[in-house]
Amino acid sequence: MKIITIVGARPQFVKAAMVSKAIMQYEGSGIKEYILHTGQHYDVNMNDIFFRQLGIPKPAWQLQCGQGSHASMTAQILVGAEQVLRENSPDCVLVYGDTNSTLAGALAAAKLHVPVAHVEAGLRSFNKQMPEEINRILTDHISTLLFCPTAAAVRNLRQEGICEGVYHVGDVMYDAALAFGRTAQLHSRILASLHLTPKKFYLCTIHRAENTDDGKRLASIIRALADIATADCPVVLPLHPRTRRYLAEYNLLPVITSNPFFRLTEPVDYMDMAMLEKEAAVIFTDSGGVQKEAYFHRTPCITLRDETEWTETVACGWNQLAGHRAEDIIRCLHTATRKMDIPEYGEGNAAGKIIDIILNCMKR
Predict the structure, then answer these.
(1) Average pLDDT over residues 145-169
(2) The pTM is what?
(3) Whole-angstrom distance, CA of residue 150 vs CA of residue 198
(4) Which positions are catalytic?
(5) For residue 118, what is the enclosing H or E element?
């Protein structure tokens, strides 16, 4: 059986690493995976390092589609992926999450009548202004196998009339947190390099278009971070390339660079990010993946959005929705707690379940 995995962004590299490891356990059974990297994330620290560090097989194809508008990027990936799929005739295409790479890869496969397996199916923020919401809805509706991380995701699909090929397998990101958490503890040196004390710093990631492309929203978030940053509890801000570009465009970068209580960095690798998440006092983010990783590492999270696809993290009290207003972000910081709760993301074996199901279904 030939599987082509299509990835293009940091969270997908992490998820694919776990599934690739599960595939390797079937070596000799005839299953073979080939990776198509769309190039959606082109920064070295968001790309090459992840492949090396997580042990992901080297991509067989690289499309270099990291520039342009949503439409342009999606079109480039669609054309490139279609060519690869036509020339290699896979038995199944694996896609992850909700990026332009996800939708374009799934669409290319579906139009060629190649079964699509969607990892992280069924998630909904119910905000169609977000490009990710459009990507995940359309991908789910053209997928053959839908692997859901939560019971809520299964219910979302059922409400949209998708009942066949749906499997509640748990979350491969939880698999990764368990697999790499101890490694990060042993090998990461990020706390020392940034002069940080465990539980005495805040971590923030900002990358979604709704925040970066809106000068007023971005300025409000930066103002809140500047207000809460202190000598005793600085703010660590690994900058996504797009975020850095917009900070400069809106003349917000000097606000950060002139503040001694910010620790501004380039994007960090997976192990360093895991260590920062684990040891932060509180995490501020607009990333879906980081919200979950905060939950896995038992670190309170404040989400810089008005809604989230990870509703269970809010329901159990670990995560708060703050939006972008400075006063709301600061208010949420005062109510952040470290409640203990049992995660509903499985037992850390989602990747193995996914491969077992694919093998069984493809044999029929």
Answers:
(1) 97
(2) 0.86
(3) 31
(4) 207
(5) strand 116-119
